[in-house]
Amino acid sequence: MTVELLRSEPVAGATVSGRASIDTSTNDNGYLRIARDTNPQAGRHGNAQQAISNINGGERTKVLIGHGYRGLIVTGTGQSASDPARYISLTNQANWQPAMAALKGQCSILYLYACHPGVSQEGANFLFNLAQVLGCTVMGPTGFIYINPQGMFSLEPRSVWQSATPTHRPNPIEAPTPYFRELLEEIFVVVDTGVVGMKIEDVVSLTFTPLMRNPENRSPSLTIRGADSQEVLKRLALTEPFRLPGIPGAVVTGRLQIQAGDGTEKQFLVLNERMLQDQDNPEIFHYWSKEAASILLNAM
């Protein structure tokens, strides 16, 4: 089996148009670093207040670049959303709304270059709220956004830019859903010898650690053993491995460990509860079902 390279839809050249600002965090998979290297004209921010200040004045097209999650863009902590002063979402509006309101009348459109800020009802509400505060159109992707080594941005296939205006709350758009078989009997993972099949009946344990606002692993992990771990894994609908056309601007929302009886162990980072990144082979990814994180979180 070969590891597929996913296609994507180009959305911007190596230089972002408009008055832009980029997260300075080094807690990053390369997404922010490449964006900074290829956009030297953009501002640099370490918190939400600085991000907003950096796009104040100048061109009426505004751009914020950071890692994201549904209804949220990080503005200072890279791939974790752990500090309310360093992200923008509806849950911490008091931290950023006064500064954002000062931009009213200066902006014709604000783009959020991050994964999933515009997805689902949560994303639609978030963009609409921002649009009302700013008095302009606000747009954010409903899926993963990638940046390649040359600084070109692209969107996950079948994802779009959700758009809100001060007078229009958009209808929610769900993230693209890959095809999954109903129940798996085998998953394909990458080891030293290449892509191999791991029979689910050989799995002896599954451990999940939520990291969305827990970057230091302070929340308890959930470990499921034996037949129960096999039943859960069947329903996680892990897809065959693939490579991405660029680096995703996503938040690390969890860690997943799968242990087989022969000693084989695979560890993955969970990105926005929709994709797994192989920690031994960081260029290898798997989709998993959107219900996967809910299954595990509800069991904790």
Report on the architecture of this protein:
This protein has 300 residues and is α+β, with helices and mostly antiparallel strands. It has 2 domains: 4-164, no CATH class; 186-299. Helix content is 19%, strand content 33%. The chain contains 6 helices and 23 strands. A 6-stranded mixed β-sheet has the order 4-3-5-9-10-13, sandwiched between helices. A 6-stranded antiparallel β-sheet has the order 17-16-20-21-22-23, covered by helices on one side. Strands 2-12-11-19 form a 4-stranded antiparallel β-sheet. Helix 4 links the parallel strand 9 (109-113) and strand 10. Helix 2 runs parallel beside helix 3. The longest helix has 15 residues, at 120-134. The protein is elongated.
Draw up the topology in text.
Elements: E1 4-5, E2 9-12, E3 19-23, H1 31-38, E4 43-45, H2 48-54, E5 61-65, E6 68-69, E7 72-74, E8 87-89, H3 93-101, E9 109-113, H4 120-134, E10 137-141, E11 145-147, E12 153-155, E13 161-164, E14 186-191, E15 194-199, E16 203-210, E17 222-225, H5 226-236, E18 242-243, E19 247-248, E20 252-260, E21 265-271, E22 275-278, E23 285-287, H6 292-299
Parallel strand pairs: 1-18, 3-4, 3-5, 5-9, 9-10
Antiparallel strand pairs: 2-12, 6-7, 7-8, 10-13, 11-12, 11-19, 14-15, 16-17, 16-20, 20-21, 21-22, 22-23
Helix pairs in contact: 2-3
List keywords for this structure.
single chain, 300 residues, alpha+beta, 2 domains, 6-stranded mixed β-sheet, 6-stranded antiparallel β-sheet, 6 helices, 19% helix
Contiguous low-pLDDT stretches (5 residues minimum) are: none
Number of domains: 2
Could you give the order of the helices and strands?
EEEHEHEEEEHEHEEEEEEEEHEEEEEEH
Strand order of the largest sheet: 4-3-5-9-10-13
Say how many strands there are.
23
User: Count of helices?
Assistant: 6
Radius of gyration, CA atoms, in whole angstroms:
19 Å
Strand fraction equals 25-35%
| Residue share in helix | 10-25%
Mean pLDDT: 87
Largest sheet: 6 strands, mixed
Gross morphology is elongated
> How widely separated are the two ends?
35 Å
Class computed from helices, strands and strand pairing: alpha+beta
